[in-house]
Input
Amino acid sequence: MALKGLIVALSFFAATSAAASQTTEQRPATAPPGNAQTRYCMHIEPITGSRMETVKCWTRAEWADQDVDVDQEWPKEGVRVIG
Output
């Protein structure tokens, strides 16, 4: 009986991991186009000593003020676009 439960559990795990790998989306090579008010939300490094992941949403100009090239960082750190 325990063997049957183990087999069911392992088959469930295999099915969910296979489904997850099929739904992986391809990220664009650059950030989506927008206007001057469009905000680009990206992951930023957490504050030292924190494990909390932070997401900031700024315009291209605001990212440029922080020396961040939105088009270069978007494929790795992009989350969403607002506006």
In short: Residues 2-22 form the longest helix (21 residues). Helices lie at 2-22, 60-65, 70-77. Residues 70 and 76 are 10 Å apart (CA to CA).
